[in-house]
Amino acid sequence: MLSAYIDSKESAPPDLVEFKTRLNMFNVAQYALVRGGGILLVAWILLYSPAGLRTRSILMQAHAWTLLSLYAAFCAVYVFRQYSNIRARRLSRPPSPTHIPMELDGPAPRSMQLRIPTRPAIIVVPYGVLMGLGFAALVFTTLTIAPASKTESLLLSHALGITISLAIFCARMFSLVMEDGIRKFVAQPLRTFLRPGFWLHGGLFGAAVGTVIAYRAGYVPNFSIYAASLAIGLPLYETFSRLGCHTYGCCYGCPVDMINGVPSTRSHLLWRMLPYSPVTYNHPSDYAATRAEPKLLHQPLLPIQLISATAFFLLFAIVSLPLAVYVSPELAGVVTLAAHAAVRLLTETCRADFRGQINGSMSSTGKMAILQGFVGFAAVAYILFFENDFRAAHVANWSHVLNDGRLSASSLAVVVGTVVYGVHIEEIGRWVPENDFAPQPVQRSVDKK
């Protein structure tokens, strides 16, 4: 209410603005201390207390850890964002190459990114942390459903390393081909390759290839269960990755009254089903949306990534996990693939970035989602008609979470995701300093007489 009152005034009283800033500081402190302490307490109860250990239901445990992880991620993003806002108000930074000087109407630019004052400057974006949490959720889900023993869990940890590494590599390669183009890559191969940018369906292709390689290398005891567990964890991974895209400003939604540049009310129908406000990106260079289209600065956009994250979380909690626990992990995996493709197609037309733009009858990512959905539905039909022996997933014991490799592998996944997706050099959208590509001047020796 106070923020709305201040925004309604052309020139708010300085004392009132300072009071609001102090309230924000207090709120950040209580989020970090009170809620952070509560999160740690709940995690300790789930891991160590008799009440937590008595809760043997995998569904209840999975819901508890999933909700706790999402709430922890929400609190972390809130603290990071509010701290950045407060710091931006307190400090007056001179223009630099990473901050495009612009005359802006409205509030001062705000940034959610963490800048480390080194040479060259290192920028850490929340997108990387959330991607790391997504990988951790995928790893934890797989190691909870797939292994039948501690030995198998250790083997599958190696398999996941191969799978995730190839998924990241292929996601980058698909982005390089589809976004940058072969001509640009041939003209500037190193600069083009060493630029952040990833394509989801390239990652899915890489994960499939990595799964086959890991199986051939002997790290996967049961191929069908391992592949199914990866598919089951996909919507939970997507939940975190969509939240990351929301903070980064990529894959952004269309204006609230537009779809693919055409006035429409469909976005309102999808948007009003969920209690989300329009998202506005109010920094000219720190968000992918405003870097790609400066006209989107301060413009209300459909929060399509928040909507997608909610849909994927509901898919995991209501469909994927119950099917795996009570029916069959194989059936749960193929149903999840088909439903994941359906969610992608449903939200595709509400995006304004170039991946969501129509190219012919359908966008390129829409065509990939159609192919994925066809594979998923075909696999569902095959299992229902030819596989009659449905067996529920064998779930790893929760009391062994500290010594069976799940926690260490998940922690490593967070680090990998944060570094690969979250670390930028000098400016957002760059992995190496610009000076490394600049031609070096030729130094000629001059004879002094």
Automatic annotation (TrEMBL):
Coiled coil: none annotated. GO terms for biological process: lipoprotein biosynthetic process. It comes from the Eukaryota. InterPro entries: Lgt. Pfam families: LGT (PF01790). The chain crosses the membrane at residues 32-50, 62-80, 120-143, 155-177, 198-217, 223-240, 301-325, 368-385. Keywords: Cell membrane, Membrane, Transferase, Transmembrane, Transmembrane helix. GO terms for molecular function: phosphatidylglycerol-prolipoprotein diacylglyceryl transferase activity. One of its GO terms (cellular component) is plasma membrane. This is Phosphatidylglycerol--prolipo protein diacylglyceryl transferase. It comes from Favolaschia claudopus.
